[in-house]
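User: Hi! I'm working on a homework problem where we have to compare a predicted structure to a textbook description. Could you give me the structure for the chain below?
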Amino acid sequence: MKQSLSHRLLIWAGIAVLLIWSLGPIYWTLASSITPTEDFSARPIHFFPQHFTLDHFSRLFGIDIARIGGVQVWSQFRAALINSIVTSVAATLLCVAISALGAYAFTRIQFPGRGFLFAAVVATLAIPGYAVLIPLYRIMISLHLVDTYVGVALIYVSAYLPLSLWLLRSVFEALPIALEEAAQLDGAGRLYIFFNIVLPLAGPGLTAAAILTFLGAWGQYLVPLIFSPQATKPLTVLIPEFVTKNFIDYGLITASGSIAIIIPALVVIFLNRYLVSGLLAGSVK
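Assistant: Happy to help. Predicted structure tokens:
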């Protein structure tokens, strides 16, 4: 039955609302980053920049000398950018490595309490992060891991490991076990099978788990706000600091926010097909 015109219009209206809701803030950030400072207070508000400037980016990258609290903006931004990349990448690699080993064990190795242990790990997804911040902070203090790459990365891993483990278990369950049995008949050990047969076949699933972990770690705010106050401060914590007691630097906020958006956006754009195939890998055996 052909869809009526009103039904099609309703669908397209819903799509338009969804796009505006999700892409509107991103567009406004990008547009504001190339808008001169004096145009921010212009009335009426223009949804398209009336003038073009790269002054905010030049100040951000230290081409023009700009200081906030006596520290050059570029040195702050560069350190925060490096911190975001290091902690996100480290957490992603560690989380995928641990979850891949764990998911394979839950899928192929029979041991007592396997189902209960897996359910217990995945159930931690229901625990909000702020509920364990105080005990977690005390643990990190005792281990001298506050404001360190290792400490922040480990917290990210603990947060995203259950999701990654659940995803990769579904991926491994969908792989044909006959390939592993044939390799065992040829004398291959379990580790050889895991690294040379299972992991290559599970590539899309591993990539999907890596993307989800990276995006989650990159966008964290509450955890680094508490556990990364100085040396390992990421972009998500630095950008709000451009709001001072007497002045809000919209130019620096939008310029730095644009860069913070572009990096994860590029990851999703170039790895989107792996993300989709990886999420669907365990849906059909």
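For your comparison, note the following. Strands lie at 67-68, 71-72. The first strand starts at residue 67 and ends at 68. Good luck with the assignment!
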